[in-house]
Design goal:
Helices cover 33% and strands 18% of the residues. By secondary structure, it is an alpha/beta fold. It folds into 2 domains: 234 residues, 3-Layer(aba) Sandwich (Rossmann fold), CATH 3.40.50; 163 residues, Glycogen Phosphorylase B (Rossmann fold, 3-Layer(aba) Sandwich). An 8-stranded mixed β-sheet has the order 3-4-2-1-5-6-9-10, with helices on both faces. A 6-stranded parallel β-sheet has the order 13-12-11-14-15-16, sandwiched between helices. A two-stranded antiparallel sheet has the order 7-8.
């Protein structure tokens, strides 16, 4: 089977978890004997070919006002112009056309469409190649792909988002199969009028964190408890909320924050952080970072599509404090592998941190249960099996069993709280 992946970015350009998962899929399917190529946007004009991890990579220069992989926050008018062009970027179709002509794929797996726009669907359909769309974010409902504005998650599309996504739902009728990385994200986008003719599936992302030797469950801390956050530094990720809540607690604990964001927002976080308690350490590899913390916090105040970092933490026997937003409750279950809090109750985050600080028995139990609770997410072969089944069914013009069949996994139920 010849497969072309289309994605906004590709390693070493990593904007988030989607880039990690797409690379794992590409290299995993290559290892299973598929002929795999990737088409992503890049910083230079034209189309450039290279090999990475055995996979052919095409990097296409972006026909827009700027390349979106940047830490610099550009002025609002420039960003608006960028998104206006990204409604339907006709110029990007030539890159899609050229790579399809070179590769002659049997199927195209579209991932994040930022930079490509839905014009990619039209070009792929014009070539007579079936489309499998993987939904990693809210791009099809919101130009910023977050549905987050003025400090909170949007309950519905605003006028600008609706205008910028006009006719996109109708265009999605070209998609043969759609895969959501969580039940939440698939339902949210489908309810927005997308994928009326596609077979629908949920395939949760997997991580290779489970391939490493399993560390022992965390022992009780000796006085100092180490909380940590790793990921993008942005308002919707709730990093500012986390710092404020943590600094309001009178406990013997530290908070370490790893990751990058827009430079102005990084400066804002550094200004509010008390260096005696909070350290912003920049980019860190997850293995090294999580080895030196006791509790991971995922304080997203937007509808997080999935939250692979929560899986990675549980795989390392770390209890997780997460919000009840988006797809996170599909990973973190209250009192099983972590605690859930809510941005609607701002102090709930501080209470959760305080509870884990005071109750060492609870923390130890969550640590012991964490890895088993995410076992299905640690099986890369399972994820690859699911993708291959969907691809084969799509190529043969049939639905891959019933909707959501691949998503159904039943984690152990949480024990009653002990307090």
């Amino acid at each position: 089977m010849k497969i072309l992946f289309l994605h906004s970015l590709y390693a070493p350009h990593i904007g988030g978890g989607a880039e990690i998962v797409v690379r794992q899929l590409a290299e995993g399917l290559l290892g299973r004997g598929c002929d795999v190529a990737v088409l992503a946007t890049g910083p230079e004009r034209g189309l450039h070919e290279e090999i990475l991890g055995g996979v052919r990579i095409y990097r296409a220069g972006l026909y827009n006002l700027y390349w979106h992989y940047t830490q610099t926050r550009l002025n609002p008018l420039l960003r608006l112009g960028w998104h206006y062009r990204d409604r339907y970027n006709r110029s990007m179709r030539q890159h899609v056309r050229e790579v399809i002509e070179r590769e002659q794929p049997d199927v195209v797996i579209c991932n994040n469409l930022t930079g490509w726009s839905v014009s990619a669907w039209d070009e792929i359909s014009a070539a007579g190649v079936p489309i499998v769309q993987v939904v990693h974010d809210l791009y099809l409902l919101c130009p910023k792909d977050t549905m987050f504005s003025k400090g909170r998650s949007c309950s519905r599309q605003c006028r600008i988002c609706s205008a910028f996504r006009q006719h996109h739902g109708a265009a999605s009728a070209q998609v043969a199969a759609v895969i959501g990385v969580s039940r939440f994200i698939l339902d949210r986008v489908s309810e927005g009028g997308y994928f009326s003719r596609a077979s629908r599936h949920v395939v949760h992302n997997s991580t290779t964190a489970g391939d490493n030797p399993s560390p022992a469950p965390r022992q009780n801390h000796s006085g100092l408890l180490r909380f940590g956050y790793i990921g993008t530094l942005s308002e919707n990720k709730g990093v500012g909320w986390l710092i404020a809540q943590f600094q309001a607690l009178s406990i013997n604990a530290t908070l370490e924050i790893a990751g990058r964001g827009k430079l102005d927002y990084e400066a804002q976080l550094k200004a509010m952080a008390d260096p005696a308690k909070v350290r912003l350490v920049g980019y860190k590899h997850a293995d090294n970072f999580m080895r030196n913390i006791d509790v991971l916090v995922v304080p997203s105040i937007w509808a997080e599509p999935f939250g692979l970092v929560a899986v990675e933490a549980c795989a390392r026997h770390l209890p997780v404090i997460a919000t009840n937003m988006g797809g996170l409750p599909e990973i973190i279950q209250d009192n099983l592998n972590g605690l859930l809090c809510s941005p609607a109750d701002p102090d709930s985050l501080g209470r959760a941190m305080l509870r884990l600080y005071l109750d060492s028995g609870l923390r130890q139990r969550l640590s012991q249960q964490a890895r088993d609770s995410v076992a299905p997410f640690l099986n890369m072969d399972r994820m690859l099996d699911q993708y291959q089944s969907i691809l084969h069914a799509t190529l043969h013009g049939r639905r891959a069993h019933d909707d959501f069949e691949f998503a159904d996994f039943h984690a152990p139920q949480a024990e009653p709280a002990g307090d």
